[in-house]
Amino acid sequence: MKKFTLSFALVILSLIAIPQTPQAFNYQAIARESDGDPIINQAITAKISILSGSASGIIVYSELHNVSTNSMGLFTLEVGNPDETISGNFEEINWGVNIYFMKVELDENGGYNFTEMGTTQLLSVPYALWSENTANPEDADADPQNELQTLSQEGDQVTLSKDGGTISVSDADNDPINELQSLSQAGDQVTLSEGGGTITVSDADNDPANEIQTLTKEGNIVSLSLEGGSFTDEVDDADYNPANELNTSLVLDGTSLELTDTGGTLDADLSSLIDDADADPLNEFQTVTEADYEVTLSDGGGTFMTGVKSYTQAEIDAMTPYNGLTVHNSTSNCINYYYLNNWFEACGTCTPMPSQAQAGEDQAFYDNTITATLEANTPEQGTGAWAVATGTGGSFDDATNPETTFTGQPCITYTLAWTITNTCGSTVDNVEISFFATPTGADAGNDTIVGYGPTSVNLYANTPETGEGLWMIISGDGGILDDATNPSTLFSGIAGETYTLEWMISTACDTSADTLSVIFENIQIGGPYQGGIIAYILQSGDPGYIEGETHGIIAAASDHSTSTQWGCFGTTIPGADGTALGTGLQNTLDIVAGCSAAGIAAQICNDLELNGYDDWYLPGKDELNKLYLSKDLIGSFAGGDYWSSSECSNLNAWRQYFDYGSQSCNGKNYTNRVRAVRAF
Q: Is the pTM of this model over 0.70?
């Protein structure tokens, strides 16, 4: 991603008279690349966050804008637009109780890979003027202290400040204590202090207990003790049982009253006492109901409001309000109250806010996996839910489980959103899950030359760990694959034909391919091949033989010297004593490294560049014999001795007499013919 910077200007909307307070402000910025050039005419994504308390404080509100820069790199957006909200409620931010900061993040490519551009304190907020105007709605001088009064006393004068008036408290001697009196008793004398006087309480025997009397009844005679007298109870109770006169039932049926005791039931007609024109006692009953915060008493009993009812801003504007009317504004989510012919608004912070959503780390699967276990956080406040933001064909085992299993489709990258919601708002976080099965890298094996008769060969491609393999014939006629899905299948062709085969490993998402050449040549001894003449083709049991492949010895078409020494007579050359097939090349390298004499047989072959090849060497003892055996097919051999690269001792080396084929050790200082070979 390019590094880029912002030049920005924050534009706050002009405040208007209450109650219509602004709920957003404009933000403009110029997006620039790191070299200062503006990013012009380009769609970008901007993420705006409001932080509480500090530049690293809690995010109380965030929103996402898809905007485009103009020809100067300038873009404009509206902070607080509810259509762009990610989390929080802009209208519920309590600007008056804290300081707030605005963090800006951008993705210049219009995606969601944001780069933080900076965090700036908001020094002017939309409700500042409203707060100032409503702080003292009934105080003309805006001073809440100068309405307080004090009460003071001087002598018998009590005064209330700020022209509150004065009253007189009359006390001739100005001594509030000497008006207090106490009551005391001595014997039968009761005295009130401060000249209040004394009275006599007469009790001849000074025994306060013997004046206590008791009341008793026997039959219908009621007596008071201590000669208090008696009287006859006029209640006629023939059996002197007061309990059996108790009523057991009282029933009102319309205007008829039934009174029952042990003696029977008495009916009383109350119609003359009740003014009920329709003689229906039930239709005077009233009921209390409540609907939409209105309490109503039936039958014209009246209605009054209880609680706070919710209205939209349009409904509030259409009201005919009265002083003291309080309603909930569902548009601004604030409390509106009407006083002194004006609406006022109070907005608070909703609590508790939902937990901050954390969707977990991104996950990518490059095998055949199409399920993933998610790792979101468990909400402490609110409830969580998963949703597929981008990508098709995905599903959740349980969308409310933060650690649910998600199943998708191959070759798709999904954006999943974890949202935590409660009545105060919601928070959201995204995670990317990618199911992209990447095939194992294809390796078809080495190019192969098949000769000397066979027209089939086993292939040796790699076995896929991810994906499925398939052989295809890209070029060449008559080729047959025994099993095109087997990396080691048998391939058959036609002699003299060159084939190009492709080994391809595929998944549903991608493929990997590699090719090789298979040549079925008519290779035979004496035939021209790779810079010389084929002198020998390796057979089973020969050193270096590989089943299914054709390898052997190629001889140069003519001699390189007719009279050359082996060299280093009297010196043993370490490593130059190999005689078997395949040892000639190492012998030659050891001789060149260990013998500095110029123009010797091994040096001539080692330095040879012939027909585009430079890997020629002096043949070993057994390799030289293969040249002798095929000398007529190879051609251009003279009679006499040819040097091999195989050393006999410090004095001698093997040579072969091409007239009769005999091999023997010959002095290194003797001169013989030289014919170079190379391997294929």
A: no
